[in-house]
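User: Let's play a game. I give you a shape written as tokens, and you guess the letters that built it. Ready? Here's round one.
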């Protein structure tokens, strides 16, 4: 009788020990809408914008990548966040990776027209996940040699603190808002382009915690 009781206690202890990972509870981290237990992904680019205010440039990301700009835009750092200072356009970094990556940005303050940019080569060829209040929601759009094609549209809005995320796996493009998947398409256009970033067309949007990570 005592032996059986002792045996049951050992089983309970073993299960508890295995569940908590050597006595430490395993947290569940929502990445791309899927719960991953403390899965550390390699950060290719990372920028929290936690640096001295600068109203003329974003400078370099914390990983050393230089921020470049489109459409004559000027972006700067204000209160540890990225903001558009003048002219509507994008802020981009260039990387070598084009596949099995995720791009994410936090929208600290939601404006009226802003985008997460990916697979950018020029103003005529790139992709955007765009929020526009005049459209009443979000759309996934590609511009190839100046020809725009909407690949997805939804009435979902974006609130302060939401995240916009794109995951690229070959020709598969998945888009998420704060972990909830909103688009899942197959499209190979501009698959080899290496510019990634964000854009505020109308002003008033505040960006934070930008990163690109490997999905492998």
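Assistant: Ready! My guess for every position:
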């Amino acid at each position: 009788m005592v032996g059986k009781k002792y045996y049951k206690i050992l089983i309970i202890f073993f299960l508890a020990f295995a569940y908590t990972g050597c006595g430490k509870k395993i947290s569940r981290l929502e990445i791309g809408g899927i719960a991953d237990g403390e899965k550390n992904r390699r950060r290719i680019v990372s920028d929290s914008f936690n640096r001295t205010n600068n109203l003329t440039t974003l400078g370099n990301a914390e990983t050393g990548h230089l921020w470049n700009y489109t459409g004559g835009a000027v972006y700067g750092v204000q209160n540890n966040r990225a903001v558009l200072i003048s002219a509507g356009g994008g802020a981009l970094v260039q990387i070598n990776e084009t596949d099995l990556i995720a791009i994410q940005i936090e929208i600290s303050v939601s404006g009226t027209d802003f985008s997460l940019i990916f697979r950018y080569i020029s103003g005529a060829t790139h992709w955007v996940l765009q929020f526009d209040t005049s459209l009443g929601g979000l759309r996934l759009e590609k511009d190839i040699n100046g020809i725009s094609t909407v690949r997805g549209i939804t009435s979902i809005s974006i609130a302060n603190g939401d995240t916009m995320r794109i995951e690229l796996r070959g020709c598969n493009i998945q888009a998420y808002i704060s972990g909830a998947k909103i688009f899942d398409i197959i499209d190979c256009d501009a698959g080899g382009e290496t510019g990634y970033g964000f854009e505020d067309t109308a002003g008033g949007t505040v960006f934070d915690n930008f990163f690109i990570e490997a999905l492998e």
